[in-house]
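Input/output pair, single chain:
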Amino acid sequence: MNIVRYLLSRISSLVFGLLGLKIEKAKNDRSDLNVIYRELFEANDQLVIFDVGANVGQSVWRFKRLFRNSSVHSFEPIGENVKQIKTRYSGDENLIVNQTAVGEYQGRETLLEYANNAHSSFHRLLPDTIWLKKRSRQKRESPGTYKKKETPVDVITLDSYCEDKGIEGIDILKIDTQGYEDKVLNGSKGLLRKGGVKLVELELIFSPIYERVANFSDIEKNLVNNGYRLVGLNTPGNLARDYIWQSDVVYARDDIFKKLTG
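Output:
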């Protein structure tokens, strides 16, 4: 199947080249990361997938296309987003939607909701950045009005969630929480310590956008120290050229790393 896909890709590139056109991946195209998952799992496998920071279900759709029989546990704190996910996937008994944020402690936190709620975070946006000016114009807002409201939300940990639900292991843990990724991992220490997660996919933001974001050092405290190794990232870049530079990265448990590279 991978050979067929590769040949079709090469043929498409040649045809577009003859027409003077060039195919380029969009920034943050996760198709490169999907190659990792297809290498490890079959389409009919019954995987357990956690989608932390689900927004309106983009990753639910992606993982359901890859692995149709998978059980997806979705975590999203914004009520209107949760409604969209439930409406879109009504009747799907293998989708468990949780209206909550995920972090390092159970409790309540104040979520800052922005004009594009995909940017909502527990961290404040830096003022006067190129990113904020561009995003504000897209939403016909000023940088000063891009934040719409502050909402107290429930926060849980994945360790407590899995204990409560009797979940022994996660095949794919995807985290996209706008700079809060290390806090999610802090609340998953028990799972990671016992190797209860096979693969961790998360977004890292390198551009100065929020007052605080997780970096490699922050996340690797819980990943590398528990035997996880980097196996993929999807967005090259640099801050001299790119006003927005972020990348999705994938870490694999040691035995999965060896399976991919052996």
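Residues 22-28 have pLDDT under 50 and may be disordered. The chain has ten helices and ten strands.
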